Amino acid sequence: MSNNVHEPQEEYVVSMEHITKRFPGIVANDDVSLQLKKGEVHALLGENGAGKSTLMSVLFGMYKPEEGIIKINGNIVNITSPNEANKYKIGMVHQHFMLVDCFTGLENIILGAEPTDKLGIIHVKEVKKKIQALCETYHFKVDLDKKISSMTVGMQQKVEILKMLYRENEILIFDEPTAVLTPQEIEELMISIKNLAAEGKSILFISHKLNEIMEIADRITVLRKGKCIGTVNKADVNINDLSTMMVGRPVQLVVSKRVSHPGRPILSVRNLSMHSYSQHKDLVKHVSFDVRQGEITCIAGIEGNGQSELIYGITGLSKIYNGHVYIRNIPIYNKKTRKEQIGCVNITRSSIRKRNKNGISHIPEDRHRYGLVLDFPLKNNLVLENYNQKPYAKWGFTRFGKIEKYAEKTIEKYDIRSGQGGDSITRSMSGGNQQKAIVGRELDRNKPVLIACQPTRGLDVGAIEYIHKQIVAHRDAGKAVLLMSMELEEVMNLADRILVMYEGQIVADVKPKDTSLEELGLYMSGAKKMTLEEPDIIKTAQENERLALVKDVTYHYEDFDENGNYLKSEEKEERQDDQI
Q1: Whole-model pTM?
Q2: Same domain, 441 and 530
Q3: Is 354 a member of any domain?
Q4: Does 420 share its domain with 538?
């Protein structure tokens, strides 16, 4: 490598030429070339598993390519580690956060680049002032003294961005930077990125959101299955052209669904409150609503207004401070009367396992923390909630053949791309394919209630199209769907009914066809509020003979056929084997 400043410099600040990177069973990058000009925003587009993050990890020194060269300002370089990349002023915001949970935001930002005096002392106040100035410049609201483990996902993402800005990098890599940000935060980030490019910084921007790419990019490189399909100028293409280049076929960008015909309430929340002892306040305040059979009900709102805490309470991830949660109108077996009947289960104090058995499927907001065991093989993650039940276990023994057969079926059905199929370690997979694994697992459990939090986070347009169709099909099969999404476009397209939360309360109950994005924004900001009717009171068995209130049931939803008839053990096992 030559550092001679008098050597002629190329037009490109970064030139990756004929890069090939292989992993066991897969070629992640196959002879890929990419050039980045000074002061431009260059977007990298492709399906989940197309090799985008791998290519950027090669540039950032996290992977060593088997073939190809990298040039920085015309000079061939050998980037062997992220520290080496930082020497060339290359910074990266990772899709999966590279943060230490037990450290504060400030400690994470300066980690590895601690400013010290001659005695090795870090002057924290001076460093903090510099970072706070960055927060003001880029409109980031970050509590620098808060530990990462206590931060929301959106705040963690901002810490990642501040790490890069603090190091004054000139070549900035953003890997899905808006995946966990609210619409307002995304708009602010877009402005910040444009300002950075105007200052002369060169930016590589990975995103699945075509609207973002069309707004911010100067040029776009498209990858598909590890190969470079081409590089185009934004002015020469439209969204449909890009989606076709990315997926290899025309993609339906608008959700197609028939009008819903809601049935009986399946999930009922009554007077629910969630309290934060660290913040000394209620984050969810006396919330009541129903999610009905054959309907997609969406919880919308600006991040930090109680949506996540509400879902944590319903699914059992956090203890409910006050109120009740019920699964209603499902077939259960009453041990006292020894009869099957349509009943109601109080799951307020149930464990997560019991909630799952009693009728809840959950696609979590944070797939790493709550959705997967990253060091398990993919096949084990696909049966994470029912590995100890038939048909995957019998007489206390695991039936590995059944698990492998189910994994093969799910991988094919949901196009989950991994180098070694079901044996792939989940951590090694792309974020989008990890998400598809969770979505496939939860939809296939076929429970009466599906709670989907950010179900298409990190997915490409082809995968989003497929997942949306599956969620609508779930609704059409008579299931109740509770959706939480920060994507207002997804909310308006997918939801049949929208509940807007502001400061821990539901302030609006509207239908997409009867409202606009502007009106939705007024509710979300607290500028407008509806007067809502109180839902019905859940009655006990003594008040209503056909409603059995059961606190701990032995027989669950999957023990009944489509007509509500209780299945004997051999019939149930035969049906499960047929499904696999």
Answers
A1: 0.71
A2: no
A3: yes
A4: no
Q: Specify whether 439 is located in the same domain as 451.
A: no
CB-CB contact of 365 with 308 (8 Å): yes
**CA–CA distances in Å: residue 399 to residues 43, 391, 440, 577:** 46, 8, 21, 12
The CATH number for 248's domain is 3.40.50.300
* Residues contacting 494, CB < 8 A, separation 6+: 255, 257, 296, 298, 468, 471, 472, 483, 485
Same domain, 77 and 179: yes
Which residue in 450, 412, 457 sits closest to 434, CA to CA? 457
Strand 322-334 and strand 265-276: the pairing is antiparallel
Residue 131 located in a structural domain: no
Mode of pairing for the β-strands spanning 497-502 and 295-300:
parallel
List the beta strands (DSSP E) in 381-504.
393-394, 397-398, 449-453, 480-484, 497-502
Do the beta carbons of residue 7 and residue 75 sit within 8 Å?
Answer: yes
- Residue 553 contacts residue 332 (beta carbons within 8 Å): yes
- Per the structure, the complete domain to which residue 440 belongs is given by 360-446
Q: In sequence order, what DSSP letters do the residues of 157-220 get, joined into one string?
A: HHHHHHHHHHTT-SEEEEESTTTT--HHHHHHHHHHHHHHHHTT-EEEEE-S-HHHHHHH-SEE
Q: Is residue 335 located within the same domain as residue 345?
A: yes
Q: Look up tokens 């058995």; give the residue.
A: 357
Q: What is the pLDDT of residues 336-380, one digit of tens each?
A: 777 777 788 899 999 999 898 888 999 998 888 899 999 999 999
Residue with tokens 């509710």: 523
* Tens digits of residue pLDDT in 211-253: 889 999 999 999 988 999 999 999 999 988 888 888 888 777 6
Flag whether 103 is in a domain. Answer: no
